[in-house]
Design a protein that fits this description.
Elements (H helix, E strand, L loop, with lengths): L2 E9 L2 E7 L10 H8 L9 E6 L6 E7 L4 E2 L2 H13 L6 E6 L2 E8 L2 E6 L6 E3 L2 E5 L3 E6 L11 H9 L10 E8 L2 E8 L4 E3 L3 H15 L5 E5 L2 E9 L5 E9 L1 E9 L1
Parallel strand pairs: 2-3, 4-6, 11-12, 13-15
Antiparallel strand pairs: 1-2, 1-18, 3-4, 4-5, 6-7, 7-8, 8-17, 9-10, 10-11, 12-13, 13-14, 15-16, 16-17
């Protein structure tokens, strides 16, 4: 039986089981093991697992697995990966790294990490919301004033959108947003986790850009999720897309330990 050292992190409430995998020791094909790691009753517990891999061109490669084993980009996870790389001495205060959706740059100061996300070429308008890709696919629904976000059935409505024919076969994450006393607040149903999570970096980014698109809001935009607040900065392009997208927020190491495969 082999032992693996792990680091438990959270980024604004999104939590991850993370491994220094620069020697390629993690059994990435073992989806049952990944599911067990993420299980909050029988395993370590997390929204997903993150591998810090060696890379010949970049400082490191971040590989994020959802609890079901699928691979995706994760914005909060990217910030945590940068923090772990800094903790391990792989990087200093600045870095460039590879993720599922391509190359990224980042800076770190204490627990605050800023990551440059992918450009967004367009925001698609629907009668019931907005669809865009911020490194992963997101649908954003703005709730009316008479429908409180706190009481909204995010799991039921999120699952409907996740499997909506408009977004299949890949499906989509689903975010629900409301501005309360000038504060943008959101809740999210995450594809792959198949449940509501406390936060999503790419989801918060999608919310910020969708509101900028719909209401001509200016950069930066602060968005409050259940697990914490992130700040999204961006540049609006003439074609209605967005570039120079930066996400800033906390990345916190909670504890570390050992598991056995």
């Amino acid at each position: 039986m082999d032992s693996l050292h792990f680091y438990k992190y959270h980024g604004a409430g999104n939590d991850f089981v993370m491994f220094d995998n620069r020697e390629s020791i993690f059994p990435s094909e073992n989806t049952d093991f990944i599911a067990w790691l993420c299980d909050r009753r029988f395993g370590v517990g997390g929204d997903g697992i993150i591998l810090l891999n060696q890379h010949s061109t970049y400082d490191f490669e971040m590989v994020y697995h959802n609890a079901d084993g699928s691979v995706a980009m994760c914005g909060n996870g990217a910030r945590c990966a940068v923090h772990l790389a800094n903790y391990l001495g792989v990087i200093g205060a600045e870095t460039s790294f590879l993720a599922h959706d391509g190359a990224h740059t980042a800076t770190i100061e204490a627990e605050q990490v800023t990551v440059n996300l992918s450009d967004v070429s367009e925001v698609d308008d629907y009668e019931d919301g907005f669809f865009l890709n911020t490194g992963t696919r997101h649908f954003v629904r703005v709730l009316p004033e008479n429908q409180l976000l706190s009481g909204y059935d995010v799991i039921t409505e999120g699952r409907k959108l996740r499997y909506d024919d408009r977004f299949m076969p890949e499906g989509t994450n689903a975010s629900f947003v409301q501005t309360i006393n000038g504060q943008v607040q959101m809740r999210i149903y995450e594809r792959g986790v198949e449940n509501e999570t406390l936060s999503s970096g790419t989801g918060i980014t999608a919310v910020a850009l969708a509101l900028a698109h719909a209401n001509n809001l200016v950069s930066p935009i602060r968005v409050q999720a259940k697990g914490g607040q992130l700040t999204i900065a961006f540049k609006r392009e003439e074609n209605q897309g967005f570039s120079h997208v930066f996400m800033t927020g906390p990345a916190v190491m909670v504890f570390e330990g050992t598991v056995f495969v």
